Amino acid sequence: GIVNFVIDQGVRFVTTSAGNPERYTSQLKAAGLTVFHVVPNLSAAIKAVECGVDGLVVEGGEGGGFKNPRDVATMVLLPLVRSQVDVPIIAAGGFVDGKSMAAAFALGAEAVQMGTRMVSALESPVHENWKNAIVNAKETDTVFLNRMHSPALRALRTDKTTRLENSPEVNAMAEFGKAIDLYFGGDMESAIALTGQVCGRIDSVRSVRDILEDVRREFFETLEAMSNRYLG
């Protein structure tokens, strides 16, 4: 099965999501892997901790990808979960630079996960059309689909996703389309381009190295500036 495959490949860190954390956690941890579980709300976070995960990826509804239909913004979710659990937290949903990383740390995270920023990175294997669509998007250019179904998802606004947004009774998963044609063919209408609201803050395609170096630099600059301003 998939768990044995992961173990056999020598993977040391695994994130699980979109299901019961109890299903794989004990087997993965018994093999010596570190396991973090992605959670969209407090009850899921508490359940994951009770199942023995090593940490959590706390993901707000503004992030791209598959979501709980009852989405909660990172600004609300992250400090709420932090107040109730003691395990390490990776914050996800809305993070793109050092300033947003500093905000996540202030709210209780030990790290951040940047999905949309990395989809649009130079080394990302997705087609340039998707990367350029992210760069050209405004903060309002995503849609939240499938609120009446499960899973819900946040995606880039296209003709296809706008039609689905206007037809909430339709299960978007049945209309997902041909992902390969989107990812590698660049046909933005062939499938649903999972993208977070933070697309509105991305203005260029950059290398992963440059992104990470700038995030680290700005993170420490932000902490220093805040300290100088408010602590004297």
Short description:
This protein has ten helices and eight strands. With 232 residues, it is an alpha/beta fold.
What does this structure look like?
- β7 and β8 form a beta hairpin.
- With 232 residues, this protein is an alpha/beta fold.
- The protein contains ten helices and eight strands.
- A five-stranded parallel beta sheet has the order 1-2-3-5-6. It has a three-stranded antiparallel beta sheet with strand order 4-8-7, covered by helices on one side.
- The termini are far apart.
- It has two domains: 136 residues, Aldolase class I (TIM Barrel), CATH 3.20.20.70; 83 residues, no CATH class.
- The radius of gyration is 18 Å and the shape is globular.
What's the layout of helices and strands?
Layout: H1 2-8, E1 13-16, H2 25-30, E2 34-39, H3 42-50, E3 55-59, E4 65-67, H4 74-82, E5 89-92, H5 98-106, E6 111-113, H6 115-119, H7 128-136, E7 142-145, E8 152-156, H8 159-165, H9 179-183, H10 208-230
Parallel strand pairs: 1-2, 2-3, 3-5, 5-6
Antiparallel strand pairs: 4-8, 7-8
Helix pairs in contact: 5-10
Short key terms for the protein model shown above:
232 residues, alpha/beta, TIM Barrel, 2 domains, three-stranded antiparallel β-sheet, globular
What level of helicity do the residues show? 25-40%
> What is the end-to-end distance?
57 Å
**Beta-strand fraction estimate:** 5-15%
Please tell me the overall pLDDT. Answer: 96
CATH superfamily of the largest domain: Aldolase class I
Q: What name does the CATH topology of the largest domain carry?
A: TIM Barrel
CATH hierarchy: architecture of the largest domain: Alpha-Beta Barrel
Number of strands: 8
Shape by Cα distribution: globular
CATH class of the largest domain: Alpha Beta
**Helix-and-strand structural type:** alpha/beta
How many domains make up the 3D coordinates? 2
Please state the CA-atom Rg, rounded to the nearest Å: 18 Å
Sheet having the most strands = 5 strands, parallel
Can you list the strand order of the major beta sheet?
1-2-3-5-6
